[in-house]
Amino acid sequence: MLFAHISGADSLREITQGMAMQGGNLNHMGIDRTPSKSTLAYANEHRSWEIYRDMFESLVAEIQPKLSQESKPRGFKGKLFSVDSTTIDLCISVYPWAKFHHKKGAVKVHTVLDHDGLIPVFADTTHGRVHDSKAFSAMFHGNPGLFPQHSVIAMDRAYVDYELFGEMTKRNVWFVTRLKSNAVYKTVTVYQPPQNSNIVSDEDIEFTSQTRLRCGYRLRRVVVLNDNDEELVLLCNNLQFGPTTVANIYKQRWQVELFFKQIKQNLKIKSFVGTSENAVKTQIYCALCAIVLLNYLKHISDSKRKQCREKSFSFSNMVVMLRISLFRSIALNEWLANPFVPSPESSNNHQQNLILFGQQN
Fold first, then answer.
1. Mean of pLDDT values over 93-99
2. Which of 75, 95, 111, 259 has the fewest C-beta atoms under 10 angstroms from its C-beta?
3. Which structural domains are found in the chain, ordered by start?
């Protein structure tokens, strides 16, 4: 499945034939013969997708501490996460288990992105009908160690759940989200917004009616102008953050959108080689394993090219170069530093090719 994602194979036949064409290049992986199409189909149908979910979590635990890249608002020292989901459309007649609308199927990939390294540290796949707030509530309660105390979660308006907001505040887990337009509240304290900033207003509020009973805490309401001069009404449960910090935290939520764009453009996650629920989830979690490994390779490549005072490759360029060089016998560390250096035997191969085509110097 990793070969399918990186090579761009669209079907089980392309996977088996593509790997069979590699010949002896697979020996170093302990593969003396490639599996048949029926073998891969059987594995997609019967081998539990949970194996690949556990593999993804193990990779994250191994690689996350090695990534030093950070993308946080200035002056913010806590742990920062972004939470969002992406919907992958499916044909309901081919994937009848993926309920979404009457004539449309879909699966959702709910992701927690850690801004220390910008890789996903948790992911869950559900049917398209599962609401984002319901999936996040199950994620929050089922994984108590995922969000440590005093960490901050940036999320969109789809995750508004006032009862959950109260539980997060009780655990000292902070959030920044957007306030719904129909929210009923009263203003408790009004603060003077900073001068020469994009902050329109800053105040403490309390919800009224039934919402107050579900939340039970005073919250922060900050109105900010975005780059298009549109007003965004933000909601935060940390009353000590400055209004510009609240605005900058929510702005960092865009990183999870860039992550979804990255994985959809470079890996096979919009079309699937199997139609069962197990096959689809297997391919999704293999894609998550691949994206973690590729980001780690990108991190190593950036470090090595920085030492050589060379410009770093973009993520998509690095994936293309890996795709072309996938089964070359090369030293990976040297290749990541400079993939354009010819191999020592290249001159001999050139002479042999000239002889093959009837040309000689």
1. 91
2. 75
3. 166-249 (2.20.25)
